[in-house]
Amino acid sequence: MSELDHWHPVLLSRELSRSKPRAVTVAGRTLAVFRTTHGVAALDDACPHRGFPLHRGTVEHDALVCPYHGWRWSPDGRGVSPGNPRSKPCATAYECVERHGAVWLRRAGADTAFPYLDVGGHTPVGTAHTRVDAPIEVVLDNFIEVEHTGDVHTFLGYERARMAEVESETTVADDSVRVWNRGPQRPLPSPARRAFGIPREALFVDDWTTRFSPVHSVYEQYFVDARTGERAGDALRIAVFFTPVDDRRTDLAVFAYTQVDRSERPLVEALRLPAVMAFVRWEVSRDAKLLAHMADAPISLRHRALGRFDRALVASRKLLDRIYRGRTDAKLRVVE
Question: Which are the contacts of 36, defined by CB distance < 8 A and separation ≥ 6?
Fold first, then answer.
């Protein structure tokens, strides 16, 4: 089992044109992704002939053509050499699909399941693709604890001064880690509260589950009126996928949904939904900016001064090793 045995969202659909290939890197391996009349395809980026980067080529009649010597490569990796018509060269091909507004790929022949995103009854808000200059372990650590929201986030999260009031529960299963948090929502500008129906005295609930084939977290985020105990305001479902570029960089693919029915107030929602996605992108960019200072941080959690919000970190590291990387000696342990 290796990282490329899992499905990864390597590009948003809008990032891949009909005629120009794109280079993507997953776990240190660079691939050329391109469109055909039948869908999307991916090959190892280095041309098997002389190693020229195929993503600098062109797509002609559903084949990727190397601009160095004109060798043509079909989506399944079969090659044709104009100067050597009897030869049968081959390139390494990958399985590709296009779903949820993104291009996904994995190693050909792998038997891992495609990740299930339960978005029934939800309205798509938008997608985002962000590169973080930090290892996947460090990036995942950040996204599975809420203590940092008091200093890093602008909108969604909790005040540092009231962090002790935040309830947090961690549940570890054989293939997942769930973290549930509830506490006083940090103060928001009045226009934002009114636009999204958030009470002045609101509790923010951030409930997520992280899985590891591929590595991704699905967040359920909503508000509770602290005075009545009833849910209020908009509810979000956000899926974040973590793809290692190499040992020092990680790509994030973000898929955001809401329970708001766009058809009930089409004009209002046409303005509100882009604003929601702007908030999501802003918060992710804040995380990315801070994490860039941790590119050289030690990966190990040994001898760390871990607190109650860090209980998911150790369990997630174990599942990352066992499920995502296929290391059978990884054992689960939760920080007490």
Answer: 59, 62, 75
Q: List C-alpha distances in Å: 116 to 40, 108, 119, 219, 241.
A: 20, 20, 9, 14, 12
Q: Which of 20-24, 66-70, 199-203 has the lowest mean pLDDT?
A: 199-203
Please check whether residue 59 is in contact with residue 35, taking contact to mean a CB–CB distance below 8 angstroms.
yes
CA 5 – CA 20 distance, rounded (Å): 26
Which residues constitute the domain of residue 150?
123-324
* CA–CA separation, 255 and 128 (whole Å): 7
Identify whether residues 212 and 313 lie together within a single domain: yes
Given 73, 107, 141, which residue is the final one in a domain? Answer: 107
20 found inside a domain: yes
Supply the pLDDT for residue 267: 62
Give the Cα separation of 105 and 18 in Å (integer): 18
Rounded to 10 degrees, the C-alpha dihedral 310/315/318/319 comes to -120
The 10s digit of each residue's pLDDT in 321-333 is: 999 999 876 454 4
Helix, strand, coil shares, percent, the chain, to 5: 25, 35, 40
pLDDT value at position 302?
81
